[in-house]
Amino acid sequence: MTDTVPNPKTIKGRTGDWEIVMGLEIHAQVASKAKLFSGAAVGFGAGPNEQVSLVDAGFPGMLPTLNKHCVEQAVKTGLGLRAQINKRSQFDRKNYFYPDLPTGYQISQLYYPIVGEGVVEVEAEDGSFFNVGIERLHLEQDAGKLIHDLSPTESYVDLNRAGTALMEIVSRPDLRTPEEAVAYVKKIRTILIYLGTCDGDMEKGNLRADVNVSVCRAGNYEKFKASGDFSFLGTRCEIKNVNSFRFISQAIQYEARRQIEILEDGGSITQETRLYDPTAGETRSMRSKEEAQDYRYFPDPDLLPLDLEQAWIDEIKASLPELPDDKRKRLISQYGLSQYDAVVLISEQAKADYFEAAAKGRDAKLVSNWVTNEVSARLAADGKDFSENPLPAAHVAQLVELIETNVISSKIAKEVFDHVWNGEGSPAEVVEKHGLKQVTDTGAIEKAIDDIIAANPDKAAAVAEKPQALGWFVGQVMKATGGKANPAAVNDILKAKLGL
Amino acid sequence: MAIDAATVRKVAHLARIKTPEDRLEPLAQELNGILQWIEQLNEVDVDGVEPMTSNVAQPLRLREDVVTDGGKIDAVLSNAPKSADGFFVVPKVVE
């Protein structure tokens, strides 16, 4: 044995080591005004069945007409995922009966999806990068919503969501840990928000993930990767509709452990659909959907194949905004930021924009620190993100300028920031109003030092033998000057006066 | 492809068509007859022929992303056996 480094991707079992293998299906609601195949509005908060056309309600004879903007959004997303755009795609019917699906079939794209293979580069928590393969992206309709708590014996159906356009983004089984799965979903979400093709609002269910989890003996994943032979992998279970990062991680941990327990007890895994229950912290089988997993897909005879013109794809490509990966690289080269700072800044488009607005002509590293520390912390405390940031970027720029030009010390800057955040005006105004200007007048500093030395002759004598005691004097001077003395000047003068 | 009574039972269930047990065998025979008839199409060599998706070559018609519909709860609920407060009401379905 030469390899003594433990493999962090394995899980210990009673009978040996196991590995988790996961593939994710992310459902992202397309940002659009109208639905995928009808002119009814897409939105949140309307009264029941107000945003429903007869097409959505599955009335006889109603025909679907594809929304051009939704197609454009899917192409844009495909380009953002650096994936292949299929110039011909087709819509199929996925047949099943459920009260949230009035037509009895969902229009989806099984055989010829609009977007093919791509690759996404994901940042891991430790700052390293890993690639996740994208198998496909297709357009499909969302279903309606069932409400179970209005009656003990009946379910209420609201079709407002029925027919809303979704993009289903299917990954390869390239994910190995709960952390990787979460980092991957975060990256996809960031890309979608940059592109403006999905708002990424997980609380409203506009972005949710189905997680396919399987476990295999340690080492088998490598064999699968080398051979492409799925028999090296275990039977997978699909955990449906997980809609928060925390739940994704918890659901995977529970499900992997559950499967390992079954296998170690000599049992076998049944391929099935499961639901994560956050309250109980466990996954459980969705028996009703298990019964009829036969969707009898066939091409939708109401819809012709979708042919995309290269000129239109090129036009969409030209309209793409700067993507997160490109922005990260540019922030590093243009502003000399560290990889870590750049990753934190690009995690939110508005945060990166804010940084760039404040960094013009200023010390970029310092601006980055203020944006990612103080401003981020205040926003988080108020439950806001950067798009709702009340603090003008110019204020951060001015604050940094005051530090750079030695008008205030970094320490006083925190106090200035407090006042500015509380709406007391610009940093310069706050410094003026509260008299926080740094004292660089050596005369005033000297006077304070002389007073302190005179009052503490014993300590002054001791400093010669114990130079660390200088810190005490610095503290006293800062106290005497209300923290406004320039620390460098204080140090220099103290050393001179104490003969160090 | 031969269809037996078990397949008929499964397909009937998937389509939610109630089918008495004594009809399964006769239906299997009828469906086999239909399939055999359709299977004659396999005799035609279609190698290299692109599938025809429409009898007139035309592109798929697209709509603009504009809200033109909705706000017609009465019409939407008009065929519902039961509704309340703007919702369809159905027998309880629980996950």
From TrEMBL, chain A:
<dbReference type="GO" id="GO:0006412">
    <property type="term" value="P:translation"/>
</dbReference>
<dbReference type="InterPro" id="IPR006075">
    <property type="entry name" value="Asn/Gln-tRNA_Trfase_suB/E_cat"/>
</dbReference>
<keyword id="KW-0808">Transferase</keyword>
<dbReference type="InterPro" id="IPR042114">
    <property type="entry name" value="GatB_C_1"/>
</dbReference>
<keyword id="KW-0067">ATP-binding</keyword>
<feature type="domain" description="Asn/Gln amidotransferase">
    <location>
        <begin position="353"/>
        <end position="498"/>
    </location>
</feature>
<dbReference type="GO" id="GO:0005524">
    <property type="term" value="F:ATP binding"/>
</dbReference>
<comment type="similarity">
    <text>Belongs to the GatB/GatE family. GatB subfamily.</text>
</comment>
<dbReference type="InterPro" id="IPR018027">
    <property type="entry name" value="Asn/Gln_amidotransferase"/>
</dbReference>
<dbReference type="InterPro" id="IPR017958">
    <property type="entry name" value="Gln-tRNA_amidoTrfase_suB_CS"/>
</dbReference>
<keyword id="KW-0648">Protein biosynthesis</keyword>
<comment type="function">
    <text>Allows the formation of correctly charged Asn-tRNA(Asn) or Gln-tRNA(Gln) through the transamidation of misacylated Asp-tRNA(Asn) or Glu-tRNA(Gln) in organisms which lack either or both of asparaginyl-tRNA or glutaminyl-tRNA synthetases. The reaction takes place in the presence of glutamine and ATP through an activated phospho-Asp-tRNA(Asn) or phospho-Glu-tRNA(Gln).</text>
</comment>
<dbReference type="InterPro" id="IPR023168">
    <property type="entry name" value="GatB_Yqey_C_2"/>
</dbReference>
<dbReference type="InterPro" id="IPR003789">
    <property type="entry name" value="Asn/Gln_tRNA_amidoTrase-B-like"/>
</dbReference>
<dbReference type="GO" id="GO:0070681">
    <property type="term" value="P:glutaminyl-tRNAGln biosynthesis via transamidation"/>
</dbReference>
<dbReference type="GO" id="GO:0050567">
    <property type="term" value="F:glutaminyl-tRNA synthase (glutamine-hydrolyzing) activity"/>
</dbReference>
<keyword id="KW-0547">Nucleotide-binding</keyword>
<comment type="subunit">
    <text>Heterotrimer of A, B and C subunits.</text>
</comment>
<dbReference type="InterPro" id="IPR004413">
    <property type="entry name" value="GatB"/>
</dbReference>
<keyword id="KW-0436">Ligase</keyword>
<dbReference type="InterPro" id="IPR017959">
    <property type="entry name" value="Asn/Gln-tRNA_amidoTrfase_suB/E"/>
</dbReference>
<dbReference type="Pfam" id="PF02637">
    <property type="entry name" value="GatB_Yqey"/>
</dbReference>
From TrEMBL, chain B:
<dbReference type="GO" id="GO:0006450">
    <property type="term" value="P:regulation of translational fidelity"/>
</dbReference>
<dbReference type="GO" id="GO:0006412">
    <property type="term" value="P:translation"/>
</dbReference>
<dbReference type="GO" id="GO:0070681">
    <property type="term" value="P:glutaminyl-tRNAGln biosynthesis via transamidation"/>
</dbReference>
<keyword id="KW-0547">Nucleotide-binding</keyword>
<comment type="subunit">
    <text>Heterotrimer of A, B and C subunits.</text>
</comment>
<dbReference type="GO" id="GO:0050567">
    <property type="term" value="F:glutaminyl-tRNA synthase (glutamine-hydrolyzing) activity"/>
</dbReference>
<protein>
    <recommendedName>
        <fullName>Aspartyl/glutamyl-tRNA(Asn/Gln) amidotransferase subunit C</fullName>
        <ecNumber>6.3.5.-</ecNumber>
    </recommendedName>
</protein>
<keyword id="KW-0436">Ligase</keyword>
<dbReference type="GO" id="GO:0016740">
    <property type="term" value="F:transferase activity"/>
</dbReference>
<comment type="similarity">
    <text>Belongs to the GatC family.</text>
</comment>
<comment type="function">
    <text>Allows the formation of correctly charged Asn-tRNA(Asn) or Gln-tRNA(Gln) through the transamidation of misacylated Asp-tRNA(Asn) or Glu-tRNA(Gln) in organisms which lack either or both of asparaginyl-tRNA or glutaminyl-tRNA synthetases. The reaction takes place in the presence of glutamine and ATP through an activated phospho-Asp-tRNA(Asn) or phospho-Glu-tRNA(Gln).</text>
</comment>
<dbReference type="Pfam" id="PF02686">
    <property type="entry name" value="GatC"/>
</dbReference>
<dbReference type="GO" id="GO:0005524">
    <property type="term" value="F:ATP binding"/>
</dbReference>
<dbReference type="InterPro" id="IPR036113">
    <property type="entry name" value="Asp/Glu-ADT_sf_sub_c"/>
</dbReference>
<keyword id="KW-0067">ATP-binding</keyword>
<keyword id="KW-0808">Transferase</keyword>
<dbReference type="InterPro" id="IPR003837">
    <property type="entry name" value="GatC"/>
</dbReference>
<keyword id="KW-0648">Protein biosynthesis</keyword>
